[in-house]
Amino acid sequence: xxxxxxxxxxxxxxxxxxxxxxxxxxxxxxxxxxxxxxxxxxxxxxxxxxxxxxxxxxxxxxxxxxxxxxxxxxxxxxxxxxxxxxxxxxxxx
Length: 93
Fold this sequence. Notes:
Layout: E1 2-6, E2 17-24, H1 36-47, E3 50-54, E4 59-62, E5 66-71, E6 82-83, E7 86-87
Parallel strand pairs: 2-5
Antiparallel strand pairs: 1-2, 3-4, 6-7
């Protein structure tokens, strides 16, 4: 999993707002199985997320976080790129 964050002027790194979550399982010989419930939970959190838009003012604002499902755990990376019957390849705006 990788999270890309966007920082506003004067924001500390730990207060940065996530804008893109990239999720996927391991690939190659000896890969470990992946629990797809984990990926679903992250996807659902991205689509219903709230982030601190203006931390110093304590205001919360709903924000969509782009979700990109890279792959299921498999021998090759191009195998099983669907989650729940569709590909999730969202990009931040």
